[in-house]
Amino acid sequence: MRLPIRPLSGRWPAPLQKAFTRFFWRDPSVILDPDVSAEDFRRAMSAIHVGETIKITEGDRHPAADALIIDNVDLTDAVIVDIGASDGSTSVDLIGKLPTFGQYIIADLYFHLTARRSDGRTFLFDQAGECILVVGPRAVAWPSLSGSVRRLYSRRIARSLRPDVPVEQVLLLNPDARALMASDPRVTFRQHDVFTRWGEPRPTLIKVANLLRQLYFSDDMLRVGVASVLDSLDEGGYFLIVDNSRIKDMPPRAGLYRRTGDRFAVVEETPNRPEIGDLIESVRLPSAVARSE
Fold first, then answer.
1. Spatial distance between the Cα atoms of 118 and 120, rounded to a whole number of angstroms
2. Which of 211, 183, 188 is closest to 200 using CA atoms?
């Protein structure tokens, strides 16, 4: 982000906001409101920067990718693992289209934040205790993205950490996803790092959307991630990759691949090949003998 401090929408004179609309942000602290709408929650996610990624999400984001699954995979009793699912909005969309399935696990490395309210501001902290967001009366700031911003807010952040300031737990799951899990026991969520092997239950299909991106990781790290997905699947298991291109007018790119021995084979791709399509096909698992040595 080029400007790690932004004015908040509705907190400034209307003529000023109209003249500089693109710089204004909606209040992301709405995620602490138990009655927040699903749409407002989704909008707030774009302000959450944790780890190496941004929790950008929206409804009906991956229709072409979802179709690849429905058209090519037998979903009877399928275990679907959706890694890097952000707030679960796209998971809810896909689940609504599935004719049947066995289990659906919404997975992400970052589902939990803590919040403290102090000095008329809301401070959000990641699992490591780093302040990632400050929401004030008129502006929102990202201390984790800028040393200058960290120094500017250091005293306020320190005061927010006083023992007398209550700590609030924040679950980064969209209200729609929470409601679905409450009504359908087949749908659950789990914390998971895409760079590590998935355990049980063994997935029929692993979906990874907008996470294994050259925008976030080096090719070496991407190979580690793809290898971990490959190793998490049994023979014949499926891998769906999705990326929302930054190329103007290009729709989301997606590819469906199947584990065949020690590699992935292409099942079907969108007309525009996924960003790391070549890299996915190049990844090989070491032999069972080599891994046991």
1. 5
2. 188
